[in-house]
Write a structure and sequence with these properties.
Shape of chain A: globular
CATH superfamily of the domain at 292-446 in chain A: Butyryl-CoA Dehydrogenase, subunit A, domain 3
Number of strands of chain A: 11
Largest sheet of chain A: 7 strands, mixed
Structural class of chain A: alpha+beta
Oligomer: homodimer
Order of helices and strands of chain A: HHHHEEHHHHEEEEEEEEEHHHHHHHHHHH
CATH topology of the domain at 292-446 in chain A: Butyryl-CoA Dehydrogenase, subunit A, domain 3
Strand content of chain A: 5-15%
Amino acid sequence: MSDYKAPLRDIEFTIKELLDFIPHYQQLPSVEEVPEDTLSAILKEAAKFCENRLVPINRIGDEVGCQWRDGEVTTPPGFKEAFKEFAAGGWVSLAEDPEHGGQGLPFSLVMVVFEMLASSNMAWSLYIANYYGTLITLEKYATEEQKSLYIPKLVSAEWNSTMCLTEPHCGSDLGLLRTKAEPNGDGSYALNGTKIFITSGDHDLTDNIIHLVLARLPNAPEGTRGISLFIVPKFNVNSDGSFGERNSVSCGSIEEKMGIHGSSTCTMNFEGATGYLLGSEHKGLTAMFTYMNESRITTAIQAYALGETSFQGALSYAQERLQMRAPERTHPDQQADPIISHPDVRRMLLTQKAFTEGGRMLSYYCLKQMDITLKSDDPAAKQQAEQRLAFLTPVAKGFNSEVGIESTSMGVQMFGGHGYIAESGMEQHSRDQRITALYEGVTAIQGLDLLGRKALSMGLLESFLPEIELFIEQQQVEEMAEFNLPLQAAISEWLQITADIGQRAKTDVNQVGACAYDYLMYAGYVTLAYFWAQAAAVSLQQLSDGSDDKFYNTKLETARFYFRRLLPRTQTHISLLRESSENLLSIGSDEFTF
Amino acid sequence: MSDYKAPLRDIEFTIKELLDFIPHYQQLPSVEEVPEDTLSAILKEAAKFCENRLVPINRIGDEVGCQWRDGEVTTPPGFKEAFKEFAAGGWVSLAEDPEHGGQGLPFSLVMVVFEMLASSNMAWSLYIANYYGTLITLEKYATEEQKSLYIPKLVSAEWNSTMCLTEPHCGSDLGLLRTKAEPNGDGSYALNGTKIFITSGDHDLTDNIIHLVLARLPNAPEGTRGISLFIVPKFNVNSDGSFGERNSVSCGSIEEKMGIHGSSTCTMNFEGATGYLLGSEHKGLTAMFTYMNESRITTAIQAYALGETSFQGALSYAQERLQMRAPERTHPDQQADPIISHPDVRRMLLTQKAFTEGGRMLSYYCLKQMDITLKSDDPAAKQQAEQRLAFLTPVAKGFNSEVGIESTSMGVQMFGGHGYIAESGMEQHSRDQRITALYEGVTAIQGLDLLGRKALSMGLLESFLPEIELFIEQQQVEEMAEFNLPLQAAISEWLQITADIGQRAKTDVNQVGACAYDYLMYAGYVTLAYFWAQAAAVSLQQLSDGSDDKFYNTKLETARFYFRRLLPRTQTHISLLRESSENLLSIGSDEFTF
């Protein structure tokens, strides 16, 4: 069994030493102060809940899964008890406005806690994940009445929520959406349609579920410009907050999936269900993207969070499993050396470690930007944070999920045949992980967003790179040269290749699509290099200040590993980014097989 | 659902046009003649069996899996009926000596049929896979009496067989093996020990199961030099072929696995089980490697065979699924274009296609060498074939499985969220595939064998490269330059980096282990380039001879795709192969986490 222990030392390193969250929090108005020891205490308490309550029900969640009977979904054994305990602990309310029953802490802090949930029990964590996007969306678009009706019940976790977006014929392409909303004449609407792949669409954890549903009003414009967003509660809610009738929305079935078996993935049927417009008519997609962008960061977190669990499992196994003599014998008194003494096992462990801790740095950096976009009153700071977040969201989501899949697969690999067996726990992490590159927009969608929209149309690469250049300038100690030189070279190359692609795209309509995947991966490797260089700088500083904490040695060596053994992957991506799209399109659609 | 149709056109292209199996068969003595139309008829008949009998029971095999009760294993619904039909069709006997009830056809032909079994139903195919290694091992090491007792019953598929190798504490490291064999005084031995991960260890498909078991004789030397191989039948067999008592070997449990649920993976308990020495005392590993080397080729075949099924599923979906407008609209009359019109989907489809057809070329080439090693009476030809096979076996097994995992994962990716759902069939291929990089020696073991043993110690790279150079020399038409130039550059680089690593390994004991994985992948990409260049040459010749068969255009464009978009992956591998091992070993075994 692979047992997760919350990596508090690395989390605190990233928050406090690398990203300076404490002074950052002090600069945010309307956010409660978070003294350093309070921060640590919150994280420690969350770690305890995760290790003691969520880890033990992770495997049974996979084995038993959710059950569907007569339109009702039952979650796996122990899921409900853990949920109630989490709710009672006030964990969902951490970042919410005190006015709505929240604790007014910074948003980033909730998400750091979320990382631990996802590491411990990915399926369970999905019943929590939806809250964040829902609350942010309601805060931004709901009327005061809607806010006071729904937000407190969500914040207290008495109710749960979903986003209903996908339909059988429409996933990435929301313009094809068919669900209809017709005015009832009393300000409410009647929704008709079928939604699929609805995470937490039905379950037994809460008394009510608030669905956010994309649908078309009568005579709405075609395509994405004619979509509106609606609030559709499972149980109607009277204006005094009491329950009205059961709404005409029901779960028609749940999906049998590769992983996250404990998370209910529902087909939801809306048969004249009563809904309430959220935000403006036909502006549903904008509201939905508030939710979606938050969800993409949540997914970025899940991806390295599962990498963390897989890494921890592989590390213990590698330390204990005796097999073959290593090139340098480390345990001559034993029949064989532990496999951690073998170079190739170390290659895999260090890859997992570098991607996990790198994913954490990148994701927390994004969370810091989110804090600013949500709470800052400085327009310039806000604008810059919005730009950073817009640029790095597809990188964090797309890259973390792709390398997260590699990482959890390596966790299986290090166990040899044992990794393929359910008992090891490793194959579950790998199956659970696979979804991260699929939901909230597949990798190609992230690549198109990054290259076509964020880099080429909006020019956000140019606004991000000066930050890296400034960092390099400020780190002129000799020991940083091994990081600064390749980083400097990479950002020049990045700028150049982006311009090249932009140029070629003028005459080749397929160029952006052909480059989307490799550009995303290229961007990910270079961005992580920036964060690993920062980690190296902090560690070097500590060591030169006389620290004898081995943590900094290990961090520094992991940064070196990243630069020497992972960053070179850009070489292949850059060479593909120089290719025209021609070769991809040269075979007729019906001439692939004969 | 993803429905497999046997790719007979590509199989025949590879056999007949690329690798000249017909004249190759004519040169093999003691092998039945195989006229071209007979060959095609056999393949067509096998395809029919696979498509009609195996594909329909693939998903139920995954859903129901094997069941264990009171020491007996039941296979999933339909498995037994399909097995009986396959047995009755004489398919297991194809390549066996007519003396033992076989049909005397070439071995490679059986394995081409095996590809179709694995594509159709990987789990089911594993009940067949063991026959090949067992029969080859018995032919080589069994006494005449043993041969006549066991071979005919295996050839008729009345009985089945296993290889019992792994123990709980010993997988890759067979030196640690503990199972004991003590002489009974009557020429037989009593075996005691526990074996795990035994494929087909127990099941309900045949009346008897013949286990080949590695064990130690009393006073055997320690380590790998003290291991012997034994025949242990499930039911003892009297010298007249009739059944004696049930032997003291039993299945203690079966494993719950990530995939291949329809294949029984058994813990086998030997409690004084009667066994018979196969081959010489203490020479069990040599005999086992006869089996293992064959199994590695079988695994290489499974890996691209599952890639083929996943490719076919993804291709149909990509042709049908309408989503988003492609950069160049292909279906203006529809609401959206099929996703095959999107460049990134094509990138994935072509990657799957290039790896699948490339894996097929490489594997069939290995099979051709096996035919020669098994049947040729020309010592020089035999020696060369043995060298090629020794060098390319780890490449085929290690590389095909690694890129096979990527390929089936891409199959999931192209389906978007639907790929994560069991109903699509795509995630099953991905789970079934994952085992190929684990069993019969994990990838690192293949890399160590290739680099340390085959390339550096035995110098087999130098004996292989002249074949590629000769090919390049013979292809001096201008159209081949786009393939020949990068291929020539790659083989020079390959030779150079091998010498470099050998040099560094003299002073760095960890160098070979540190390079094992990247060297294997590097070798795989260059070797596949050689085969894709051959495919291009054959296609160019056909086109210049006036053929208007689109098959050749597609083949040529796929070769171009391979050279321009997959071969560049060597750039990253080569840059890692130039690294010292230092960075991998610089962190203490207990200093990875804090």
